């Protein structure tokens, strides 16, 4: 695909210069970009308007229209995000380890940019700015492939970023947007091994699956979160209720929201009626196992597929389990490796849950909603990795780097 | 594929138990395995004999027969390798970082096994034991898919390892060998996403390419090394000669051997005749650019493809360059991201080379042959990663792990 080859080549060339850029120049460019985004708010909003109008014509849902829409305050939010990235420490050049060998060789493992990062995402134009900002700060060139629904908004944001960034000293070719928004361009980007060092999908399960199945470039799976809260027999039930309500309802459309509730059988009679009532009052639809449907007639009987589904809406699967063992094995069977919590007062059960549940983040007595770069104190992130290679959990600047061994000698041979 | 699904399921189950195993049990099992391998030398050698006989019947080359062959001393070497793995520190459970958040959440990033590792390799039976040993020590279950040429040897080694290992407390299913050695089983293993966490090919460029193109499981590219030595104008020429001879001829069949020599034009007249003579005397075939062919008539003229080829034999591509800039850009255009060296006495040129050459290991004044787990002081390795995600350079035990965030709270919600 001609556009991709051309942009790939430019990005690769830019990445060599970007890798050598000082933190001061990168930060200056990011701050200038933030200012330019605010100064160009009218232009960006006008272009965004075109996307929204087309979306309405095409019968796009209200939720999607909302995610797509930009106004002055959201533009300010985008700029503020870029400023926060500028304020984060630069991971490039960090020494990871240093070794002096008996033969006198000095070996230093240093952090370097990955090179060229491809990002494939859907209808949120703010991802354009966030992702490009994170890539720039970590010294990587970026090739963005956003959804066609946000095409005009993305083009506008990228134009503003390119102009301000290149004027401030970023090499041309650092920031690229794929203008071809067909499915073919997305697949071609996943297979652009000549130029890309990594491809990161940001979006729903369908996109992630397409990348896993088709990418030949190393890919990082992000985002799917079929998160569980398990309430143990010994739990503080007030605490458990608060955690469940928070994890399920505070922001149900995000990947760290709770999707499943497991309750120990010995407290089910006492705890379930209250929690199901509270959830229902907040508009949450209950999908339950036999026990739950027996005590709560409004519940919809769960089918096998429910246990592995990420609803991303006000809907929850509820199941009664015999003990912590059954909770752990149920979670390990059905979870997506994102965030899992136990509410308990029993030390051994807490330790077993932490050690045996296989997920990026495992919690005792806290809401799953904390799995987030900002909440962990790392700052902005490009997504939550749910795979085990390269990075697991929130992917901040450090996770957008690789390393390199530098070996300094004085003529050593083997 | 039935065999893979069954072994995948068993490996996955075993991996959960393996992850929780103490270092003491893993080390005991590895030492018992090493003893059992030595005690079973006659059996393993007899089975190896069958592979060799078939190889000879099928007209296998002398070099391959040699790589395939096991004798008492090589069996002792395999056992010693396993003992060395037992002696290495266990990376599982290490704290990578710990954070206390303002809201009281205690976040700890700990090292955990990857889970189930698939290894695809060719005709070297020693890889069977090495790879399984490294996976076990790092708490991972392993599914080995060796070449059909070494099938009986691999089966014998795996049987001995399973019996000794399971008796010493490793969960059954920890060590698996795929008995189907068709190309289909190799492809199916690369796509066994339900059970595998990572796939690592160990072998030639063809195998690596097949994995990159076909794998849906996260893969780690290893091994291809089109390594360069660049002799700068200011180099100590005696040192340069020793490094070139060592890097090219000490063991030409390995991935960190030198494949290309770049020489600064200002020293070409003085240096090249000597180095070409010394190489030729050691049986090295010279492939040269126009300049080299002009001064050295035995040289074969290089074609474009030579510059990107990993010969893995006594053959070297030689080219004269204008300056360090041209050396760096030639290397970055043609290298495979493995190991690259500059020989120089100029500080700035050394720094530029280290910073701008894009490879897993970059050297000043030392042989590329040091890119190796033992030489770096990390101990045994599963291969040299030439990609930038997950791990780059020698992949030891630490590189066979992932991490997990453990979050301990007291009822925190957002």
UniProtKB/TrEMBL annotation, chains A, B:
Signal peptide start and end residues = none
UniProt-recorded Gene Ontology molecular function terms: glutamate-5-semialdehyde dehydrogenase activity; NADP binding
* Keyword field: Amino-acid biosynthesis, Cytoplasm, NADP, Oxidoreductase, Proline biosynthesis
Localization per record:
Cytoplasm
Pathway, per record: Amino-acid biosynthesis; L-proline biosynthesis; L-glutamate 5-semialdehyde from L-glutamate: step 2/2
Write down the Gene3D superfamilies for this protein, in alphabetical order.
Answer: Aldehyde Dehydrogenase, Chain A, domain 1, Aldehyde Dehydrogenase, Chain A, domain 2
**Domain Aldehyde dehydrogenase, residue spans:** 36-281, 318-404
> Into which EC class is this enzyme placed?
oxidoreductase
Listed EC numbers = 1.2.1.41
One GO cellular component, as annotated: cytoplasm
Q: Which superkingdom is the protein from?
A: Bacteria
Q: Matching Pfam families, A to Z? A: Aldedh
Q: Could you tell me which InterPro entries the record lists for this protein?
A: Ald_DH/histidinol_DH, Ald_DH_C, Ald_DH_N, Aldehyde_DH_dom, G-glutamylP_reductase_CS, Glu-5-SA_DH, GPR_dom
Name the chemical reaction catalysed here: L-glutamate 5-semialdehyde + phosphate + NADP(+) = L-glutamyl 5-phosphate + NADPH + H(+)
Family to which this protein belongs: Belongs to the gamma-glutamyl phosphate reductase family.
User: What's this protein's function?
Assistant: Catalyzes the NADPH-dependent reduction of L-glutamate 5-phosphate into L-glutamate 5-semialdehyde and phosphate. The product spontaneously undergoes cyclization to form 1-pyrroline-5-carboxylate.
NCBIfam families noted in UniProt: PRK00197.1, proA
Give the protein's recorded name: Gamma-glutamyl phosphate reductase
**Mind giving the lineage of the organism this protein is from?**
Bacteria, Bacillati, Bacillota, Clostridia, Monoglobales
């Amino acid at each position: 695909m001609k556009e991709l080859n051309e942009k790939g080549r430019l990005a690769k060339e830019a990445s060599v210069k970007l890798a050598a850029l000082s933190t001061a120049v990168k930060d200056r460019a990011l701050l200038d970009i933030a200012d330019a985004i605010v100064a160009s708010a009218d232009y960006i909003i006008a272009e965004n308007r075109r996307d929204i109008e087309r979306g309405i014509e095409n019968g796009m849902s209200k939720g999607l229209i909302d995610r797509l829409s930009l106004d002055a305050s959201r533009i300010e939010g985008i700029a503020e995000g870029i400023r926060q990235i500028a304020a984060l420490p630069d991971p490039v050049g960090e020494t990871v380890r240093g070794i002096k060998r008996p033969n006198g060789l000095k070996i230093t493992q240093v952090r370097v940019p990955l090179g060229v990062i491809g990002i494939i995402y859907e209808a949120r134009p703010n991802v354009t700015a966030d992702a490009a900002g994170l890539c720039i700060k970590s010294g990587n060139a970026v090739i963005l492939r956003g959804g066609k629904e946000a095409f005009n908004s993305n083009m506008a944001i990228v134009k503003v970023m390119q102009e301000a960034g290149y004027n401030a000293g970023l090499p041309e070719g650092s920031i690229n947007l794929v203008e071809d928004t067909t499915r073919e361009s997305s697949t071609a980007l996943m297979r652009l091994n000549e130029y890309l060092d990594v491809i990161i999908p940001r979006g729903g399960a369908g996109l992630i699956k397409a990348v896993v199945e088709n990418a030949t470039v190393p890919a990082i799976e992000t985002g799917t979160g079929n998160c569980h809260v398990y309430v143990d027999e010994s739990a503080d039930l007030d605490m458990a209720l608060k955690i469940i309500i928070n994890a399920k309802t505070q922001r149900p459309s995000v990947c760290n929201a709770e999707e499943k509730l497991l309750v120990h059988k010995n407290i089910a009679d006492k705890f379930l009626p209250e929690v199901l009532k509270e959830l229902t009052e907040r508009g949450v639809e209950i999908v339950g196992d036999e026990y739950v449907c027996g005590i709560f007639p409004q519940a919809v009987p769960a089918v096998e597929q429910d246990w592995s589904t990420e609803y991303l809406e006000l809907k929850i699967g509820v199941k009664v389990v015999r003990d912590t063992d059954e909770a752990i094995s149920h979670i390990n069977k059905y979870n997506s490796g994102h965030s899992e919590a136990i509410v308990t007062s029993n030390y051994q059960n807490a330790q077993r849950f932490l050690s045996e549940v296989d997920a990026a983040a495992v919690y005792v007595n806290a809401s799953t909603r904390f799995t987030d770069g900002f909440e962990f104190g790392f700052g902005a992130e490009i997504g939550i990795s749910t795979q085990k290679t390269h990075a697991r959990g929130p992917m901040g600047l450090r996770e957008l780097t690789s390393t390199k061994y530098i070996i300094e000698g004085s003529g050593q041979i083997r």
